[in-house]
Amino acid sequence: MKPILLTAAGNPHNQDRGLILHDGPRIVLCVADGAGGISGGAEAASLAVNMVRQHASHLVNADACAEVLRKMDAAIAKDPVAGETTCALAVITPEEIFGASVGDSGVWLIPKNGDYLNLTQAQQRKPFLGSGAAWPAPFRRPREAGILLLATDGLLKYTSAERIMVVCREHSAEAAGQRLIELVRYPSGALPDDVTLIRVGI
What we know:
Elements: E1 4-8, E2 16-23, E3 26-33, H1 41-54, H2 62-78, E4 87-92, E5 96-102, E6 106-111, E7 117-118, E8 137-142, E9 146-151, H3 153-156, H4 161-170, H5 173-183, E10 195-201
Antiparallel strand pairs: 1-10, 2-3, 3-4, 4-5, 5-8, 6-7, 6-9, 9-10
Helix pairs in contact: 1-2, 4-5
């Protein structure tokens, strides 16, 4: 079980961030997408992943993950430089997967057979973290064999779930990550948005 983190810029400055953190038998994962259209998106996303790193030991269940995101919202809102960001946070333990999210970045569980499960389907797209009014949505699910995918909307918004599932299932972690990015690349070589993803077999 080796998580792969990849990021690619679709804008002049990549405002996405990602984190993989091994904490004993647990793996803490998150992706953050700094909001475009306002300044400080990259700074907000960086603050988000840094706070996940700092609070990793407190992420003991889904409610604790949601509480860290609420603290994150307040801290980013007070920062004089940071703007706003999404954050999708997941913790893999030997028994379960849990986490919390705000925005339109997602956490998908792709089983060996059948349709994917959007673990972040209950999240609210807005208000983002940094607004001071974000409302994180927690999630929890027993661990099962398959693939866990965390991704910003630069991937999820611009291709189909079916194509994502095929790539994740048919390729190794290393190959799948780059192929997922290529799914949304224009013929010109440009990307429609920044893309950050974490793929891990579980």
